[in-house]
Amino acid sequence: MTKHLTDLLRENAYPGRGIALGTSQDGKHAVIVYFIMGRSENSRNRVFVTEGAGIRTQAFDEAKLQDPSLVIYAPVRVWENRTVVTNGDQTDTVFDTLVAGGSFEEALRTRTFEPDAPNYTPRISGLVTLEEKGYSAKMSILKSDAGDGSRALRFFYEYPQLADGTARFIHTYRCDGNPIPSFEGEPEIALIDGDIDTFTEKVWQALNGDNKVSLFVRYLSLEDGTAQTRIVNKNV
Fold it and tell me: In whole angstroms, what is the distance from residue 206 CA to residue 9 CA?
């Protein structure tokens, strides 16, 4: 049975960082969701801020920022009709490769999982391309081979415009743990509904109250490409 995105989130106290790409219930918008969670003070000390047509993570309290290498990055960047969303600095790798005429897959084959042993957090990425009639979506996960930090596995998924009211959802961790187990299998099928404000509120409330940090939701009009964006930060 296919579950609503909010149900999948309620059932998992620590999916880590997550990306969902889909189509609004009314079929008029491509939907992009990105959220971050944290267990450490450094991970929780963040907010999303706008940067051009995209967003960047920023320390909420600069005095408490420890290692910025894996927590400060641009999760979302936009180039022409393409929106790139990732959980790390591979956003820039994909963006720069697209601008240079390369592909999503080509860019990510140069990257691997995060160097945070023993978790080896996967790098998850998405691309939404607006087209004359609708859109297409791609997703990827770069992960260790069963926790072996010497071997990287790279998975790519390609979708035509998804059915109205559905999305594909991928996240870094299968659940909480120590070390934290990586996501397994294909991106999950999830139901989505409501206008952007209703949907954003539902997703935010479904994320674990202790671990959630920030949420980004964007609705892209399939008629004219205009974007509606909502950002929610726990630290305000």
Answer: 6
